[in-house]
Specification:
Helix content: 40-55%
Order of helices and strands: EHEHHHEHEHEEHHEH
Number of strands: 7
CATH class of one domain: Alpha Beta
Mean pLDDT: 84
Structural class: alpha/beta
CATH architecture of one domain: 3-Layer(aba) Sandwich
Strand order of the largest sheet: 2-3-1-4-7
Radius of gyration: 17 Å
Low-confidence stretches: 1-6, 225-230
Number of helices: 9
Distance between the termini: 16 Å
CATH superfamily of one domain: P-loop containing nucleotide triphosphate hydrolases
């Protein structure tokens, strides 16, 4: 499938925090020319723009590494998937994070006759995850992400994109990292079996160079266009 193809898939990325779901999801979405729907980014945008609202209060638990209630995150994600740009395809990461959420997504897409096509599961060791997360810097203004060792900004502590001061996200602190990994193993890891049983899971080695990982992602989604329903 060539870049900018009129055919695109409906794909979910799964993997523990720090596996590269956002990075690889964004690359695949750009390759296909479809929206990258990242639930974490959507939720943080609400916290920035709608502080003080009931929705923001329900989302605030992510600062402690906890999961946002299913009803709340589903509302936010489904609103994004209802937008015109997502009708011909999307790349979703950060949702679903539990089997209950997966069933909610399945119902939502089935009602719209846009069933999920492929689930890409990113595999990576826990030591590599902690190293990635603990060195991550994020721009609170534009959302750009860096790493102090592997992908530092041109000027230390300053975003290359907008010049804003970079920060370590609250959920990238040691305590919340441990909480996030525990929640992943308890609630999200069972999704691998859920989607494997449905024949949709394609697992990808997420360690190593970002470009090499993307090559594996493309290979795992190769031939997807042959199975799409239009």
């Amino acid at each position: 499938m060539s870049e900018g193809s009129s055919r695109a898939g409906r794909v979910v990325f799964l993997g523990p925090p720090g596996a590269g779901k956002g990075t690889q999801g964004n690359r695949l979405a750009s390759f296909w020319g479809v929206p990258h729907v990242a639930s974490g980014d959507l939720l943080r945008r609400i916290l920035q723009n709608r502080e003080g609202s009931a929705l923001a209060a329900a989302i605030r638990v992510i600062d402690k590494g906890s999961l946002v209630p299913d009803e709340t995150v589903g509302q936010v994600v489904f609103e994004a998937l209802d937008l015109p740009g997502a009708q011909r395809g999307f790349v979703l990461d950060g949702y679903p994070r539990s089997v209950d959420q997966a069933r909610d997504l399945e119902r939502y897409l089935s009602e719209r006759r846009r069933p999920l096509q492929v689930v890409i599961g990113l595999r990576i060791g826990e030591a590599a995850l902690i190293a990635r997360l603990s060195g991550r810097l994020t721009c609170p203004n534009c959302g750009a992400s860096y790493h102090v060792m592997k992908d530092p900004p041109q000027t230390a502590g300053v975003c290359d994109q907008c010049g804003n001061v970079l920060a370590v996200r609250e959920d990238d602190q040691p305590g919340p990292i441990r909480t996030r990994l525990m929640l992943y193993h308890q609630k999200t890891e069972p999704l691998l079996s859920f989607y494997r049983e449905r024949g949709m899971l394609r697992e990808v080695d997420a360690e190593g160079d970002e470009a090499k990982v993307f090559e594996r992602v493309l290979a795992s989604s190769g031939g997807l266009e042959k199975s799409l329903i239009y």
